[in-house]
Structure prediction request, 804 residues.
Amino acid sequence: MFIGKREKRKVLYWLERRLHASPLIELALHKRVPVHKHSVWYYFGGISLLFLMVQIVTGILLMVYYVPELASAHASILKINSGVEFGWFIRSLHSWGANLMIAVVFIHFFSAYFMKAYRKPRELTWLTGVVLLVLCLGFGFTGYLLPWDEVSFFATKIGLDISSKVPVIGDIIATMLRGGTSIGQSTLSRFFTIHVSVLPILLMGLLSVHLAIVQAHGMSEPSDFTKQEDEEKKYEPFFPDFFFKDILVWILAGNLLFALTMLAPWGIGPEADPFAPAPIGIKPEWYFLAMFQFLKLVPPMIGPIEGELFGILVMTIFAGILAAVPFWDTGESKLKSDLATALGVITVLFMVIFSVWGAMS
Amino acid sequence: MNYPIWIVPGIGGPWVIGIIAIIHIFLSHFAVGGGAFLALIEWIAYKRNDERIYTYVKSHSRFFILVTTVAGAATGVAIWFSISLVSPDGTGSLIQSFTLAWALEYLFFVAELATAFAYYYSWDKISKEKHLLLAKWYFFMSVMTLAVINGILTFMLTPGKWLDSHYWLHGVLNETYLPSLFIRLFIMFAIAGMYGLVTATRIKDEDLRVYLVKFCSKWLLPVFFLGPIVTLWYLSQVPQVTLETVFTGIQSSGVGNFSVLARALYLSLVLSGTVLLFAFFGPYLNPKGFTFKIALLFMACGLATTGTTEWMREMLRKPYVVYGYMYSNGIRKSQVEKLRQDGFLTDAKWANVNTDPTSSKQCGEKLFQYQCMACHTVDGYRSIKKLIGDRDQESIVSFLKMMDPKNDENPYKGIMPPFAGNEAETKMLAEYLASLKPKDTTQ
Prediction:
């Protein structure tokens, strides 16, 4: 059962001749993690990855029973919930996992932002991260419609109506996503295809690039750490020290997901009726709530511009400034650095306050 | 039914007990397992003649005394307050049936406290042998408190021969007494290891810290190697019908194929398993990197596991507070038939206070408070408003009648007690419950 040292060496040699993996192993063995008071934020990338793996596995299992067809979509979810052994469990893991993944990706995004991890030479790491966040929101938006229940139908309708207000491309994109002027079979088919094939391909490709660049540059170090003398700086090896701690964090994150799944399994509302009036107080998922609430507050007309269009333009410009932060906050100007931090704080406050407001109103 | 009712909106009275009890268990289990931990680590310090370990065990004993005798004792008293307010009939029944056992428990508890203080205040003042002997005596006394309280706790699920004899020893030494005693002891050792990690990770000397962190992680070994065996033994002794209820469940108790009982069981198993993984990948494999903050997170994991497992154990008793004897709403099984004929409100001593007997809705509200509120709240935890949904008075009456104890087709039999009231009271309760339904504002 046990192989000796000689056999082990032979197996490793055989593998090395075929894989040429020793440079990668060397890189992994020499990878080190800076130890400082903000080290805790390093774990959130790993947690996002864990939740992504959960999404992939549970998503594949759900596809076995889900039927992306108007007459069957809702019934197939009902069947998963009550007719398939542990179907409710897999679906709840997927739904809770999606929400937790988006929450953790947001935390990862803002922790990188406030630690100024976007600065040279990590501009591409930042930009790929921004696109990955958008893709995650895309997963949430497209996946939300698939159960074809009342709330998901009308929330999607509102979401597409809003996005159609974007000048020039908005209406084209909304029509393409809907597959026409109203939400129906074409929309469901398109959302399903985007959710299970287009977005996963984009995400896996971009994630590989993101991770490769992270490995190439190593862990980012916050400025108060880099200012320290070399003798004062503390590092720990990624393997095995940080990796073992990563496992502990994954266990905790997994426990949280499992507890939510067991204590509050995901239900399903009544089947969507496209001809029925929208229920009162319909709201999008929590991660779109801040934007939704902001647009609700904008007056119908601001000067010659339609209110919703104005709101979308303001948010787009603001998001663009945030996404482009590595190019205007390069670390050479303290003023710009402080401005970037202030913009980040305003964004976080806006998201928290408007989300809570939206949820309570 | 013999006492005034305590209304806790939102979470409901049982969760007040639950929250206090879960915290108390996590502290009191440390009080027992921690005794063995102190004795063993002090013995190691003497055997290895290691002054550093001796200094550690001294500082750990201070932490131990503060946690167990202040927080542990305060939550213990809080349990008594909360159970006597939420479940006065059940509490009264336990006091009356086990007066001698409670007296014994009190004696052992006083002895436990006395040896704990003697142990703490005699560091460097008596010989090493005598001090170590005090640690052993403390552990013995704390195990004796466990031995008594374990009998009363297990009695509530498996009263055994007591149901016929009403002899207190038959109640204490019941079918699940021994497996429960062993599994609790193993859990106590594990919890002692977790608390040990909190103090061990504060040590500055790296060699000693690594040694003690690894040492603490080994205290989780008994529960994970012997725990599953003893759990199977325990489960073989509980009323098998309760296990059937867990695995078959009822559709309306939760979404999907499993009731909340099954979900709680899975959660308890998974959390227990992950505590083992945490101990293995954390303090055992990487003692150097196991910090104080991680030790606190590990404690949070342990608390969550303890809470879920105790919640699961409590739910096994459904719908009783003492299995086969008294329902969770404090009504004795033997009283139900009489109450169904003569009525509940005529017998309930406090139910008519501040209630207009001519108002059927007010009487219905009292019936709800006395018979349903042990598990449900109006619009919080297990909201009755939500569960009633769109049902009208007539369908609620049919529902209550379906819960006849003689009805074998009643799908809620293993989950809910029967309604103990006469025909008129059934209608009163139904009227009150139907009135909770949100009014249709479109008409």
